[in-house]
Amino acid sequence: MSHSLDSSAKLNIAYWMRLTRTLDDAIMAMWKQGRGVGGTFSGKGHEAISVGAGFAMGTDDVVAPMHRDLGCYLVRGLSPDRILANQLGKAEGVTGGRDANLHGLGDLSLNILGFVSHLPQSMPVALGAAMAFQYREEPRVALTFAGDGSSNAGLFHETLNLAAVQNAPLIVVVENNQYAYSTPIHEQMAIDDIVVRAAAHGVAGEIVDGNDVVAVYDAVLEAATRARRGEGPSLIEAKTMRMLGHAIHDGAEYVPRSLLSEWKERDPVTRWEERLVEEGLLTPETLARLQEECRDEVEAAIEYAERAPLPDAAGITTGVYAP
Ligand SMILES: Cc1ncc(C[n+]2csc(CCOP(=O)(O)OP(=O)(O)O)c2C)c(N)n1
Ligand SMILES: [Mg+2]
Fold first, then answer.
1. Residue whose CA is closest, atom 1 of ligand 1?
2. C-alpha to C-alpha distance for 182 and 35, rounded to whole angstroms
3. What is the pLDDT of residues 42-91, one digit of tens each?
4. Are 4 and 274 in contact (CB under 8 A)?
5. Which end of the chain offers a freer environment for a tag, N or C, measured as fewer CB atoms within 10 Å?
6. Contact predicate 54/71, CB 8 Å
7. Is there an atom of ligand 1 within 6 Å of 46 CB?
8. Which CATH number applies to 7-307: 3.30.700.20, 3.40.50.970, 3.40.30.10, 3.20.20.150?
């Protein structure tokens, strides 16, 4: 258990985890009600990873989250208003209505690199940022994420290899959620642990319980400390479960229900809340209030985003062609 988290940080983490879950649930409900635009992804089950990893980064560090990392965007300062406005294709969304999804959800003023695509196209971009920090002798780190499926792609290996050769301050959190779309992990690879791929490239590797926010936070913080000392890249395999389908259109009928109920017992959000109640940092009453605050914040964001204007059609070519 981390000694670097004081009571207020622990409560902060509880807030970010609950806000992430509440926003995620709201997005799923809106899309099912026909109030969404295009497709969307859920990160249900991934909250300890996205919040824990994001929380371990300094504000000067760069993060390149992916489609299951709503928590990381929130922790880094992208408000639910802006996220929802983007998801609904509104002018005030992060991409100005260009992409009504989690793709492109970046804001360089917050040191968030926009998500390029899965499999894992953000990884070499994050490595580029890490190499720039190293070149300028800045004590900054780049954090990015990849899925289990992504870890089979060439780009994953090329990026790890170059990161190791360059001794770059890069942290890759592999979100091993047991499935890549409908393909279970044992049909994707002949190894039990993805972390062995770190050793193959000369990168430090560690496995963590991806449903334990402090385990993720500790591992990422330690990797960042090592990277700042010039000790190079790290890969952290966070084992978890994708609790819904690949995206909103996918009912995940191919996932055994027993697997889901097994993982539900280890739900990262309620697990952390229960732990704080046990520690006496939350009472059932203060916990209920925190959950209500998150609901109110998400409700307000939905109202804002649904009322926000669509982009002006006259500007449709702006930002599309290089000047
Ligand atoms: C080159 C390419 N092929 C296919 C896809 C479609 N695709 C998007 S995500 C995905 C699976 C990703 O699985 P994983 O890396 O395990 O991440 P998860 O979605 O489980 O978090 C696929 C096949 C894509 N984005 N890019
Ligand atoms: Mg996966």
1. 119
2. 26
3. 999 999 999 999 999 999 999 999 999 999 999 999 999 999 999 999 99
4. no
5. C
6. yes
7. no
8. 3.40.50.970
- Ligand 1 geometric centre to CA of 42 (Å): 14
Instruction: State how far the Cα of 112 lies from the Cα of 48, in Å rounded to an integer.
Output: 19
Q: What pLDDT, on the 0 to 100 scale, is given for residue 55?
A: 98
**Residues with beta carbon < 5 A to ion ligand 2?**
147-148, 177, 180
User: CA nearest 22: which of 93, 92, 100, 74?
Assistant: 74
The tokens for 317 are: 């070519």
User: 145 CB contacts (<8 Å, ≥6 apart)?
Assistant: 49, 50, 53, 64, 65, 66, 68, 69, 72, 120, 122, 172, 173, 174, 175
Which among 66, 116, 119 is the best mutation to test ligand 1's pocket, defined by most ligand atoms within 8 Å of the CB? Answer: 119
Whether 103 lines ligand 1, by a CB cut-off of 6 Å, is: no
Q: Which ligand is nearest to the CA of 147?
A: 1
Two structure tokens written together for 84: 């929802």
pLDDT digits (tens, 9 = 90+) for 113-170: 999 888 999 999 999 999 999 999 999 999 999 999 999 999 999 999 999 999 999 9
Across the range 190-207, mean pLDDT stands at 98
Rounded to the nearest 5°, which phi and psi values hold at 184? Answer: -70, 160
CA nearest 53: which of 71, 77, 78?
71
Beta carbons within 10 angstroms of residue 37's beta carbon: 17
**Total Cβ atoms within 10 A of residue 108:** 9
